Each structure stands twice: as C-alpha cells, then as structure tokens.
Amino acid sequence: MVMNLDWEFIAESLPLYGDAMWLTLKLAFWAILFSLVLGLIFSVILYYKVKGISFIIQAYIELSRNTPLLVQLFFLYYGLPKVGLRMSEVTCAIVGLTFLGGSYMTEAFRGGMEAVSRTQVESGLSIGLSRTQLARYVILPQAFAISIPSLGANVIFLLKETSIVGAIALMDLMNVAKDLIGMHYKTAESLLLLVAAYLILVLPLSVVLSWLERKVRYAEFGD
Amino acid sequence: MQNSGIEVLFEGSNFERLLGGLLVTIEISFVSIVIGTVLGIVMGLLRTLNVKPLQALLRLYLEAFRIIPILVWLYVVHFSFTPLLNIDISGETTSILVFSLWGAAEIGDIVRGALQSMPKHQEESGAALGLSRGQLYRYILIPQAIRRMVPGAINLATRMIKTTSLVVLIGVIEVVKIGQQIIELGVIKAPTASFWVYGFIFILYFAVCFPLSRISRRVERRWQN
Amino acid sequence: MINTGELLLEVEGLQKSFGERLVLSGIDLQVVKGEVTVILGPSGCGKSTLLRCLNGLEPVQGGRISYHGQDLAGPQVNWREVRQRIGMVFQNYELFSHMTVLDNILLGPLKVQKREPKEARQQAEQLLGRVGLLDRKDAYPRQLSGGQKQRIAIVRALCMNPEIMLFDEVTASLDPEMVREVLDVILGLAEQGMTMIIVTHEMGFAKSVGDRIVFMDQGSICEIAEPQQFFTQPATERAQHFLDIFQY
C-alpha cells in the first residue's frame, strides 16, 4: 500500500497535535500525581487494617477497577450536574482518571508493602520503632522499591487511558484526529499523526520502565 | 411522592433495551476472546520457539498494543478501512477485529509466560519416571501451564469487557449509546435522566466485571500452591 | 554461680498457644544480672517462642513476665520502651536491606532514643571496630556475607545499650565456616558481663558460654543445670536422649 502523504497538511496540523499532546500530558500529570497520593494513603490504611475505613477503601477499589473509565467519565460529566455537582471538562477528566488510577496505585503500593518480610518488621519492632517510624523507615522505602515496576505500569496505563477524555468534549488527540478527518478527509495523515503522537508520549516511558524493571530485579537489595 | 427521576429506567422498554445494549458489549468481548485465545495460543507457542526474527516480530506486535491505546486502534480501523481500502465494515466488525488482535497479543504473552516459567525439574522428574514425550505434555506440562494461564486470561476478559465500552465512540449501538438515546428522548420529561442512566450503566458494568475479577482472584489463590 | 545477684527478669507460669495448640505450658525462669542462660531443646520445643514472648513479638495467654517490677505479660505494656532495654538478634540476620550498615545501627539510637548523633555514631563505630567490621560501615547488606551481617545485627542491638540480649538461633542460617566469627562476638559479650538469653543448637558453644543450661521439651522446662553437669550427667531421660542425638 503506497500512499502519497500530504506533507504540507501534516506540517500544518502539527501545532494542533502539539496542543492536544500538551493537554494529555497535563491531565495525565495531575491524575498520576493525585493517584499516587491517594494510593499511598489508602495502602497504608489497608496495611494497618484500620477498621471501618479499610472496608470503604476496599469497596472503592472494587468499584473503580470493575467499571470502565468511559462510563465513570459520562457519569461525572453528564450525570452529576443533574444532582447539582458541576465540574469543568478538565476537572472531570482529572477526577475520573484519579478515581480510576487511585485504586491501581493502592494495589501497587499494597503489593509492595506486603512483600516486605515479616522478619524485617520484627527487627524494626525489636529496636523499639513505633508503628509510624516502622512505616517511614523500614516498610515504605522497601515497599516503594518493590512497587516500582507496577507503579510504572500504572503510569503508562493512565497515560493511555487519557485517550478517552475526548468523549467528554475535550480537544484531545482523538478529537483532533477525528475533526481533521471530518473536515479535510486527510484520513491517512491524521491517523498517522495520531499514532505517532501516542508513540512519542508512551514509548520513552515504556523503555524506561523495562530498564527499571530489569534494574530492580537484578539489583534488589535482598540478600 | 416527589419524582426522583429514577423511573426513567423502567419506563416503557428502557430497562430491557439497556440490558440488550449490555449484551452487545458482552457479545463483542466474548467473540473477541474466543478468536483472540485461538490466535494467542498459536502466537504464544511461536514465541517460545527460538527463532529470533519471529520473536522480534511478535514482540513488536505485542508492544504495539501495549503502547498505543486501544481507542486509537479502533479509530485507525474505523476511519481507514472504508475510504482507504474500499472495504465496507460495520462498527461491530471493526470492534471484533481490533479486540481479537489485541486479545491474541495478550493471550500470546500469557501462554509464553506460562510455558517459560515452567520449572525445568518438573519436566525432568516426569522424564525420570519414564513418561513419554506425549505423556509428559498430557499429564504434567499442559495441566500446569493451564493453571498458570487461567487467572491472567480471566483478568484479560474483565479488561476487555471494560474496554468494549469504547465501541460507542465508533458508532456501535450498545449500552452507552442506548443510554444516550433514552436520555435524549426524555430530556423534558425526566431532566435528571442522565444521572440515573449513567449510574445504572456503571452498576451494570460492575455487576458483570466484579464476579469475573473475584473468580480470577480465587482461582489464582487456589492454584498458587 | 546460679541465681545470685540482682534479679532482672522473672517468668512465672507463662502460657502461650497458637490457636488450639499449646506451645508454652507454664514456664518458670529467673534471669540474674550478668548471667548467661542458654536454652537448648529439640525443634518445636518452644524455645524460640519463649524468646519472642520476652520481646513482645508474641502475645501470651497466661502467666507473668516480671521486668523491673513491670509485668510484660499484662495488657498495658509500653513495648517500645521495653525493647530499648531488651535487645534481640534473629536467626535471619534481618538487617534493613535499603540502608547502609551504619544507618542500620543508628536507626534505633537516633529515631527511637533520640540520642546525640555524634555520640551515637561514635559508639556505633567503636562497636563495629570491636566486631572487626569498621571498614564495612558504608556497605549495604547485600554486599556482606551472612556472618558479617549477623555480627552487624548484634551491633545494631548493642548500640541501644540494652540491659539484656536475646539471641534466637543466630548461627542457624549461617554457612559452617561463618559460625565461629559470630559466636566469638557473643563470647566476648559474656566476658564483659552482658546478661544474655541464648537459644542455640551449637552444643560446644553452649557449654563454653553458658552459666547454666535450660533444657526445654514440648513447651515446658525439663531441667536447669550448670553446663558441666548438664552435658555429662543430665538429670532427665529426655535431656539424655536429646544429647545422644547430637553425638555420633
């Protein structure tokens, strides 16, 4: 399949894609940041089995992991204003992505915390560390290192999930491509730029992640 | 009693229509998983062969789905097939095509992972008992490989069902689309319809995916030891 | 030698069970300042569990553990405070794997005891020197051998200036050639008059380090004797049987 690409069109469209990539990065940045914070807090609560709250967090995790982001976003954007809660598109997208990402980050941190061995915890106790000190100096630093691969995978996951925010009227990469196809019939060019944009966004992260994964696996501080 | 708006779900055939829409989603996932599994097993086996170019190619194929979002692939097929290749293809077919190819990539990786993680000594102790090659596969390797694969495969199914919600964006009439139609029709009579309809769809997806992830977790735990 | 001097720790009728299974049934034991108590017994006799109870790592179901007039078996124990004075070393040389040797040792003195960094560091280095590992102070645990790790784990406990040290089979996971270096450190402590309770399987070591031997079987103490007495003429048949197993 040999196609004659319209390079002029591609050059003219670049700024549009650039803006959309910037939007994607902005949304992903905030969503990932909030998800990490949420995940860190929730995983500590779950680890210490705080009564009551643990159950609520567990329920949240199940709801978040077993429903699609698209439906979550539609509910936030179209549903909630009907009962008086109105948010801007950008806020909606960040809230939706955080609702989704928070549970994934919680699971990643929790997996790491549970992988810290019981005996490490006991040696911490035996020198008189309090529960908070134990978490801060012994469990979390080790858990964080163990969680890096799954945290990284979640970052990529969330970055890719931003492709869905176009559904709530944000001018993201998907909508830019769709509009260009609709207006100019430059299908091949528009799609090519779309794929390229995601490659530029995700590929470097994916390479860094697999490098990190190898590093963590081989240089684990274990024995 | 004040009109809360939840009635919109039960007006006329709305309830049945929404469930029917959900069925479309599940059908697309189901067909894709079946096709994806068949292709994936072949792909997984091919990936364990020590043929370098083939390995690289299949790895590239997998990474294409891991790096580029599924929605992008749906758009690529949806927008390019008719105008560029002159093939008329429905939204459903597009969806099944994309989801099957994605499923094949992921199932292929699960199969490869299961086969490669099989401890060598299992095979050796089997051989030491005098089992033939066929018996070795039949009684030891395949049962163990399946145990390693099933949780991942169920997990993938859950992910796929969630992801099929995207097909509404390429014009497939499924549960979200039907929800939109119901909301549009009732816009004057039931102004809060979108809250209830999207809330209900949210619950529908949860009702399908939650049991699946439960099963996958249980199977994983039971087969761990 | 037995039971003279200041009483530090007194255990009375201690009961401990895991669910239905009784692992300690009425332990009575007294530890005097400066005394080295070695606990021997077959696997599963409850000797490690006893040590863990003394450090609050296992909740107990009955009896008393009296330490400076405080009952450690009671409900309202400030274990953080007690653990600073009862040091413990584990079988699996549990150094914190993400910290250097010095950071491992200083974590307790600085964060728990809130001591002056300079002074704590000085003590840590002095202790490291004593076990011959001062040059490894900036190493990470993964760069050390098992014997080195275990010696550092001992230093980590010592640097809290504990009154009593508990050793839970500290050589059981070591390669044979590294056992000696660790036992020598403990012997050195004994010579300086450190109060210690040692659970071990090293019979020769038990004989030379112990002021007395406590022999346990099936969750209770069968006999308490001076090493010489215990290894030549044990009073109980079970102890005799236990010793026989260790001699070819």
From TrEMBL, chain B:
Broad class of the protein's primary localization: membrane
Membrane disposition: Multi-pass membrane protein
Segments forming domain ABC transmembrane type-1: 22-216
Subcellular localization: Cell membrane
Matches recorded under NCBIfam families: HEQRo_perm_3TM (TIGR01726)
Record bears the keyword RNA-binding: no
Transmembrane segments: 20-46, 58-76, 166-183, 195-213
InterPro entries (UniProt xref): AA_ABC_transptr_permease_3TM (IPR010065), ArtM/GltK/GlnP/TcyL/YhdX-like (IPR043429), MetI-like (IPR000515), MetI-like_sf (IPR035906)
Source organism of this protein record: Paenibacillus phytohabitans
Alphabetical UniProt keywords: Cell membrane, Membrane, Transmembrane, Transmembrane helix, Transport
Keyword Membrane appears in the UniProt entry: yes
Record's protein name: ABC transporter permease subunit
Top-rank taxon, per record: Bacteria
Any Pfam family matching the protein: BPD_transp_1
Family in the record: Belongs to the binding-protein-dependent transport system permease family.
CDD domains named in the record: TM_PBP2
From TrEMBL, chain C:
Keyword Transmembrane on entry: no
Parts forming coiled coils: none
Keyword ATP-binding part of the UniProt annotation: yes
Stretches assigned to the ABC transporter domain: 9-243
SUPFAM superfamilies: P-loop containing nucleoside triphosphate hydrolases (SSF52540)
Family stated for the protein in its record: Belongs to the ABC transporter superfamily.
Protein's recorded name: ATP-binding cassette domain-containing protein
Species of origin: Paenibacillus phytohabitans
